[in-house]
Amino acid sequence: MVTGPMRWFGGWGAAHLSDESLLELHTLLLGGEHAVAARYLRHVKQCDHCAARLDAVRDDAASMRHDVAASADARITPSRLQRQFDVIMRRLDGQSGRVLPFPVTIHRHTPAPSLRRWVAVAAACGLVIGLGAGRLIGPVSSGPLSTWQAGHPPAQASVHTGAAHETDEQMLVEIDVALARSPTKEFRALDQLTPRIVDASVRLPR
Amino acid sequence: MPVRPPASAAEGQSGEVDLAAAVKAHLAAGEAAAARDLYGDLVRRHQRKATRIALYYLRESAEANEAVQDAFVKAYTHLLDFEYGRSFEVWFTRILVNSCLDRVKARGRRARWMIAADDLGDASPLERVAVPRDSTPEALALRRERGTRLMGAIARLPERQRTVVLLSQIEGATTREVSEVTGLRETTIRVHLFRALRRLRLLLADDPAFGTAPGRQ
Lengths: 206, 217
Fold this sequence. Notes:
A: mainly alpha; B: about 220 residues; 9 helices
């Protein structure tokens, strides 16, 4: 429990509260911590300059609240809220738990990005399956099975991998997990060598 | 045994806790239609603020709408877990914030593995803010500019600082409410808020849209 201010004046010889102290005082007052703020307030009550600066900090904060909230509110039209409400009620009726897309007009559905996205998904899929298969039937395939291979029949493993990817999201989660697992150092090395798609997309003409 | 709400709630009085309790009682009694109708009132009451919060996090209209829908549906399906006497708004906001954060994480995964689709071009939605009728063009332009830059700066805050500053500073929640939403201690929230404001001030210090405040030395 904090019982005192975290910062005092800028220094023992300083005549006024530092900027940080003013900000902390504002935070304390916002949180209703008047007892903790009392030490600062004693000075503010005696110092017109710091009182004015505290007012300015409060005005800044109020202005921030107003600007951000007003900007967001301006995007939320009554018709948009009504459409959203209708969708929620329909979902409550169905109780299906299925995510219904909100009817939007600002989306631009162009075939090219979708195609690129699926190409990237397919490439990632191929990478995972290829590396997995390569590990199973790679250079040691002609020799005796390793302990790991003996415990995991290749055919079953590959079939399972293909069937598990039901959604994009699930697949991406599995890729993340695969990369994070310690036995798969090959993935990490390859990951380091492979340019990031995000980086590449920045360079693409839009 | 179904839990009945206080008598005032059953009579449909205006308090949101009573309203949530009434919906819960109807659900417990198997009265789905009545529960749904009453829940509609709760949705209307919190819908705008919920959408605003989702926009702060996701900044993309369609995804924010889906997050809000998901949160309301999830709250409805878990309403039997809602405790009498607690604030429905706080309880619901916690569901909503978690839903938004899940989507932010999922978006990060997609960004690592997929080429961004053009619809993510809406990443700066405040640039296309609708114009209120009662303001001058100059004031509107300045407000839009400030709103855009503020949202950009808030988006650069760490996750906890962002949540605390959005709920507390922007939406006006009390420290206690933010504590219930985030699960953080009140003193921790104050520290996060202080750090967030300090960082925001640094981020915006040289921004001409914000000028030099009299409090800045």
